[in-house]
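= Paired protein data =
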Amino acid sequence: MKKYYVLENKEKNDKTAVKKGFSWPAFFLGTWWAMWHEMWLVFAILFILTYGINIMKFQMLNNMSPGLSTFLFFLSLAAWLLPGFLGNKWRVYFYKTDGYEVVGEMEAKSISAAYNILLEEEAGSKNHGGDGIS
C-alpha cells in the first residue's frame, strides 16, 4: 500500500490526493511533468537548468577542463534527480497556494484507488446529512 496526502479546498468543495515519497513520473519526465501539472515556476527553473547545462556542455565540448566537466555532470544529474525526490512535495505546496489544505493521510494501492476512497467518503457524508458518518 502506498501513502497519500489528502488535500481539501472548502471553497471549491474539492478533495484530492497526492502520493507521498518518490515520484517516478517526475523523475522520468522532469520538466514536462512540471508543465503537465501547471507548476510554471518549477518548469521554468528545471528547463533552464537542464537545457542550459546541456547547451554549455556542447558549446564547450572540445576545450572543457575535467573539473568543469565533472561539475556539470553532477549538476545535470541533480537536475534529473530533484523532480523525483521533491516532485510530490512541490505538488502539495502548489495545491496549498491554490487554497487547499492537508486534512489527512490515507493508504491505497494506487492513485485511482485513493480517488475512489475520497469519492466514497464524499458520497457517504452527503447521504448522512454531511455529518461525515458513513
